[in-house]
Amino acid sequence: MNSGQYQTIELSQNCQATVIPGGQPMLLQQGEKVLVTQTLGGSATVQTEMGYLVRLNAEDSAALGLTDLAAEATLTDGGPFELDQVIEQLKTVFDPEIPINVVDLGLIYSCEAEPLADGTYRLEIKMSMTAPGCGMGDVLKEDARAAAQSVHGVSEVDVELVWDPIWGRERMSEAALLQLGMY
Questions:
Q1: Minimal CB count within 10 Å: which of 41, 45, 70, 95?
Q2: For 44-77, how does the pLDDT look when each residue is reduced to its tens digit (9 = 90+)?
Q3: Is the model's pTM score more than 0.90?
Q4: Phi and psi of 87, rounded to 5°?
Q5: Are the beta carbons of 42 and 72 closer than 8 angstroms?
Q6: Helix residue ranges per DSSP H, the chain
Q7: Do 107 and 139 contact (CB within 8 A), yes or no?
Q8: CA distance 26 to 125
Q9: What CATH architecture does domain 83-179 belong to?
Q10: Looking at domain 7-72, does it have CATH number 2.30.30.40?
């Protein structure tokens, strides 16, 4: 599904969701109608009948009856470890409100790889949010950890949320600025 395509769907089963931007859990009920506003990177953002904007992870998005959203986030396999592969995987993590990945949005401040004795790598990722009070921090942090962990040769991933320097639009890529009409 295209991120710009809005579609109303009746949920085929109960599913867990996360309220945006607060980050509180919410149970959506089977039969409830939701408006799908974004399906990117394996997750979906929907608006409930009560007007809440919520995020469904790949597992819970099965209730939408759409194609397997988890398949959108491809895993790397085989070959030697390359940090560029990690960055590409981090590009499969999207802000649930803005249809831009966390790399192009400028939320990834650093990504460093440390070789381990067993030939695998430990990654240390520092990322931020667009606002310090964003309740989606833990959700996006886990998405980033899972994406980086999927790269061949990665055995450990530590993702730290940082607030210094404060995120600003100057951190966004040219592509992101163009996509949002801010360039």
A1: 70
A2: 999 999 999 999 988 888 778 875 554 544 455 6
A3: no
A4: -60, -40
A5: yes
A6: 83-90, 137-149, 174-179
A7: no
A8: 29
A9: 2-Layer Sandwich (3.30)
A10: yes
Kindly report, residue by residue over 97-119, the tens digit of the pLDDT. Answer: 888 999 999 999 999 999 999 99
Are 161 and 127 in contact by the 8 Å Cβ rule? The answer is yes
CA-to-CA distance for 87 and 66, rounded, in angstroms?
27
Strand duo 121-127 + 154-161: pairing: parallel
Interatomic CA distance for residues 90 and 74, integer angstroms = 11
User: What is the chain's length?
Assistant: 183
Q: How far is CA 90 from CA 11, 37, 114, in A?
A: 29, 21, 18
3-state secondary structure 116-152: CCCCCEEEEEEECCCCCCCCCHHHHHHHHHHHHHCCC
Tokens encoding 120: 């695998």
Give residue 5's pLDDT.
Answer: 66
Mean of pLDDT values over 113-140? 94
Domain ranges of the chain: 7-72, 83-179
Amino acid of residue 2: N
